[in-house]
Amino acid sequence: MAPSDLEALNRSLFLVIDATPATPGWLIALASAIANGLIWSIPLTLIGLWLTGDAYRRETALKACAVTLAALGVNQLIGLAWQHPRPFVIGLGHTFLAHAPDSSFPSDHGTVFASVCLALLLRGMTRLGAAMLAGGVAVAWARIFLGVHFPLDMIGAVCVAALVHTALAPLWRRAGTPLTRLATAAHRRLLAAPIRYGWLRP
């Protein structure tokens, strides 16, 4: 498929999903809450894994953080090398969410959810990973529906997350456990008082 054909498909799919002035206000409000609020489930989940988990769960949380940060870094490089305008920049569809007119591809929100989801699923945390997958799909829909992303921005986010996860896997196999031990030691020093009182796991 030629790049022009792919872009045409991208825009066509966007217009199918994008809300219109006839869309009920409650649905716009729901999409806005999902688009802006659901991202906070990521840090809450990772903090919860760290504070309540054993060494394996803590290493999973650290790996998810590492993959996410590296993938977001790749997104920045892609944005610097190739600026893809958002729908509202080119006057396409309708926009119901304020956003800076920066590059749309790939989606940072989609990248965060995909990175954490992959880290959880590939370390056997299927229920939590499935919850992250559901959240990521909801956020992807909401941000397209509200007019700030194209469908391929979300597919690109998944691809970036998968490539970064694959690239980091050999390094993590060597460094993951030692890094978790260092982070756990720092955790025990910094939070010595609540650990001593039994409020947190050591």
Give the low-confidence spans: none
Query: What is the number of E strands?
Result: 0
How much of the polypeptide forms β-strand, as a percent range?
A: under 5%
Question: Helix coverage percent of residues?
Answer: over 70%
* Chain-averaged pLDDT: 94
Superfamily (CATH H level) name: Phosphatidic acid phosphatase type 2/haloperoxidase
CATH architecture: Up-down Bundle
- The value of Rg in angstroms is 19 Å
- Integer tally of domains: 1
Total helical elements: 8
Shape: elongated
- Secondary-structure element string: HHHHHHHH
Structural class: mainly alpha
Largest sheet: none
- Looking at CATH, which topology would you report? Vanadium-containing Chloroperoxidase, domain 1
What is the CA–CA distance across the termini? 55 Å
What's the CATH class label? Mainly Alpha
Word description of this protein:
It is a single chain. The protein is an all-alpha fold. It has a single domain (24-188), classed as Vanadium-containing Chloroperoxidase, domain 1, CATH 1.20.144.10. Helices cover 72% and strands 0% of the residues. It has eight helices and no strands. Helix 4 (55-81) packs antiparallel against helix 5 (108-121) and helix 5 (108-121) packs antiparallel against helix 6. It is elongated, with a radius of gyration of 19 Å. The mean pLDDT is 94.
List keywords for this structure.
elongated, mainly alpha, single chain, Vanadium-containing Chloroperoxidase, domain 1, about 200 residues, about 0% strand
In short:
The chain has 202 residues and is mainly α. The chain has one domain: Phosphatidic acid phosphatase type 2/haloperoxidase (Vanadium-containing Chloroperoxidase, domain 1, Up-down Bundle), CATH 1.20.144.10. Helix content is 72%, strand content 0%.
